[in-house]
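From: lab user (bench 3)
To: helpdesk
Subject: output format question, protein + DLL

Hello, I'm new to running complex predictions and I'm not sure whether the block I got back is the full result or only part of it. Here's what I submitted:
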Amino acid sequence: MERYYQQEIECAPYEKIREIQNEKLIKQVKHVWDNVPYYRKKMEEKGVTPDDIKSVDDLHKLPFLSKKDLRDAYPTGLLGVPQKDCVRIHSTSGTTGKRVVAFYTQHDIDLWEDCCARAIMATGGSNEDVCQIAYGFGLFTGGAGLNGGSHKVGCLTVPISSGNTERQIMFIQDLQATILCCTPSYAAYLSERFKELGYGPDDIPLKAGIFGAEAWSEEMRHDIEKTLGIKAYDIYGLTELSGPGVAYECSAQNGMHINEDHFIAEIIDPETEEVLPEGSQGELVFTAIDKEAFPMIRYRTRDICKLTREKCSCGRTHVKMAKPMGRSDDMLIIRGVNVFPSQIETVLLNNGYAANYQIVVDRVSNTDTLDVQVEMTPEMFTDNVGEIEERQKKLVEDMKSMLGIKVKISLLAPKSIARSEGKAVRVIDKRKI
Ligand code: DLL
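Helpdesk reply: Thanks, we reran it on our side. This is the complete output you should expect:
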């Protein structure tokens, strides 16, 4: 049986969603014009006023916001309400430049937690469930967002945060946790530990996982599902827009429904900034239409993906986004060819490797080099040089047909790459150091 948290809106006819979006967008543009001088200036520069925005069809007239704007306006320059009306901040883990600090009123938190509650119920969750939240708590939005959603659903919530893998396993077993929320790379690590400790899928009480915050492949989904004996669902979001729950997967497990009563999604060509027709691949842009404190309009996420509005078997009507290929800034340009780490992951997992890999990029004598370092699984591990060479050769060939370029493959012993408890670091680009 399909479960919904707010069925009426989750399954509303498209016309109804559009009506809500039109109404909220008009109001939001006025709110920003009146209260965010930074964005008002951008609108004035583009020669657009709130009177020009009568429906979603006029969205394209509005200026974009980018990460650079967020840095320039750091920390409070994009606030839409007096700071005394805000009740919380969260922040990105940005390693370059200034972090993004996002502000929330109580109303903003409430809507965000509703989105997370929708995501939990879309996996079949209910107040019968024990929901273990192994995303980090603190400035990162993962822990707090799903914690709030889990409360709204009425699950018994285990706010364990990330890390301490042995304790995670103890709680899952002792409290009979049924839903696990964490990054996919941490879920893969937990699967590995369960296996090493001799637990098979039938010994593990979990039935669903809600995994997001980083790109992960279908192959990784299958591996985690098999080892833990669960259904693994994707969840997407970003700090600037609230956190997890901007979009989430349903029982169809083939793309994430965007919560369109709160966010309007567009796909643009990242070079020309032109809006692309539905079904095209490009950069995802979001307008948050009912956030008070941090009202993002046409925010460029830099995530590359596609949108589709096909009828979904779950009954939800909100548009779906495909798994993002990665961020446009994760895209590597190797000898002029565009390479996404997720493509490399697909080749590795299709060849029976686990997602324990790292990509090292360098420039040697003016030529880009790409070295894929991947652990052999304990079953593959051998000191037979011929066998290792065969394996390397096979991966070089498969990478060539996936990426169109020749890469170097280094096969490592099991456990040589550090495991991740949050977002995994997949790429080391020495060209930037
Ligand atoms: O990662 C929010 C989140 C927490 C989402 C927990 C899901 C679960 P940030 O740290 O601001 O927020 O990072 C946002 O992470 O622009 C994407 O590039 C990436 N990302 C998030 N979810 C996914 C996903 C959180 N399901 C950035 N697949 C986004 C691929 C994702 N990438």
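A quick orientation on your result: The longest helix spans residues 14-35. Let us know if anything else is unclear.
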